[in-house]
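DUF2415 domain-containing protein
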Amino acid sequence: MAASVREGAAAAAAAGHAVDDYDVSDGEMDVDVDVEAGSELQHAGGAGDDGRRDGDGDDEYALLTRITDTSAAEARAGKDIQGIPWERLQITRQDYRKARLEQYKNYENFPQSGELMDKLCKQVESSSKYYEFQYNTRIVKPSILHFQLRNLLWATSKHDVYFMSNSTVGHWSSLSHKMTDVLDFSGHVAPAKKHPGCALEGFTGVQVSTLAVNEGLLVAGGFQGELVCKSLGERDVKFCTRTTLSDNAITNAMDIHRSTSGSLRITVSNNDSGVREFDMERFQLLNHFRFNWPVNHTSVSPDKKLLAVVGDDRDALLVDSRNGKVTSTLVGHLDYSFASAWHPDGITFATGNQDKTCRVWDIRNPSTSLAVLRGNIGAIRCIRYSSDGRFLLFSEPADFVHVYSAAECYRKRQEIDFFGEISGISLSPDDESLFVGVCDRVYASLLNYRMVHANGYLDSYM
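Predicted structure tokens:
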């Protein structure tokens, strides 16, 4: 990521500002669904400086901002899925959507990269429905530390979700509708046992920039290169280390995976231009590959032979996972990339870029992309393939999640729309549930969608 952007975000975080308070100059945080901010989402009537009515303003404001969940049955009956009371506002949902499309500012390191791709790439018509709304809980309040890093939400089952909320990793159960704190970074965290290379003294006040949860392991990466690992079934922190002492130390992304021998490993992408692989059985650094630019995301191929590496360069790389040598350079994007994901077949993979496109590549012919899929308002910050390979999902910085049919060569698409910045998207391991973290000062929530089946079945939540 660009140094000036990184430093600006770090300064804001150090000052204790919420991500929603970032200035427009920070790129992708310019419009809030916020009745407090004097935006279009204010109630009717004579508004004061804070948008409230005189006299009965407090009651009116409470009605607008009260925390209420939304079920599938309520949504079918006409309730807004986010609980936004459009009937009491001075603007309709349709008009506010139009305003967002016109006003949202996509952050670009290369000016007009998104506008150019808008002209070159035609949007696929949204005419399919693969996932349908199931539930929205406003008890969960996801957060974002750095506006370019959006891997802060993970589902380990169709009922269990882990997410960042300010300085705490939380867990939400869609069965019990209960939220619990898993790991609090506001104070001191330290490992319970000694391991080679482990920072026994631990860390204080870690600012978590990225999160990964898989294979029973939770790993948090920090702004200063911290790596904190914890088993989901254990209370204590398992392992702590600082991956780098570089000034450009932000941990940008992590990929938890199994080696060909079955051992648990994590691949870490860092702003110091390095990709590191750790063995989590022995807590040892196995590989450290260096590149010519900050690495924003790395994903490991299903056969563990290749790495898809993207970062502060227009080109993506295919890299031999054994020695770090570049096997292919993929040309086509016009800006920096922050997301990648492999199709389960191990032949195709996708990259997400600030030029507002997701490109799909084939390792057998990396000279050109198989498909160029466009977003609506901003960079492609997070990409997921379904475990069966039928769907490719990606999210923009705000408002939109796109679901493409990989089985139909990416020619069919579902568009899921709402309002708010996106902390991350995650599919459950069985692909039945899709979760979306929404960051907003008033309407922060966790959206839950379920896969549509031809035969259908009764709602789990009424």
